[in-house]
Amino acid sequence: MNYLKKIIVLFTLILFGCQTLTTTPVEIILSPEVTYTGKGAGAGIALMSAMGPSGIAIGAAIDVGIGKKIQVTINYQNLESRFTSLIIQHNALQLQNKKIQLLKINKFKFQSVSGEKDPTAVIINGSITFSNGDIYSFENKKIENDISRPLENLKTKNHVTDELIISTLNDYLSKI
Is 40 helix (H, G, I), strand (E, B) or coil? Predict the structure, then answer.
């Protein structure tokens, strides 16, 4: 009989204990807008001396083309899933009114940084809505060299681009 009482008490605690846990629903909105700034800007200035103002336009077109190549490698469905996991982990450590409800990404800005193998970092422009209604707009303007990847890999390998974006957002969330 004593054994049966323990099982009933344990079952009751599990049943009612799990119902008291509240989770904050998380919504992710990703814009497909991707830009790149790097090689083309420098080439445009060099071309301007030889071709005039059209040289700058050619340089800008080079960057637009590189941005489109990077955009093709982004797996938005994977990013949405991974961002949701990051936010759930973040929310588990926060007070009730500081839990993230909505992450909206407006633009991914890829930018060339100095170093070997043409390292490229990503600047994420977006906003976070917290459970208390506060909205925080952000753009990680400080580019960390350790969170960059070679440009050639970003243009050709899907997982490399996604991992760079996820690493950058994770680093940013850890500072909130």
Answer: helix
Angle subtended at Cα 117 by Cα 72 and Cα 38, rounded to the nearest 5 degrees:
60
Q: Cα separation of 116 and 122, whole Å? A: 17
Q: Are 110 and 154 in contact (CB under 8 A)?
A: yes
17: pLDDT strictly greater than 70: no
CA dist., res. 128 & res. 78, Å (int): 19
Kindly report the pTM of this predicted structure: 0.79
Residue 50: CA count within 13 A, CB half-sphere = 7
Amino acid of residue 125: N
Dist CA 81 CA 73 (whole Å): 16
**111 neighbors 42 (Cβ within 8 angstroms):** no
| Cβ neighbours of residue 96 closer than 8 Å, sequence gap 6 or more | 22, 131
Query: Can you count the helices (H) and strands (E) in the chain?
Result: 6, 6
Residue 1 identity (one-letter amino acid): M
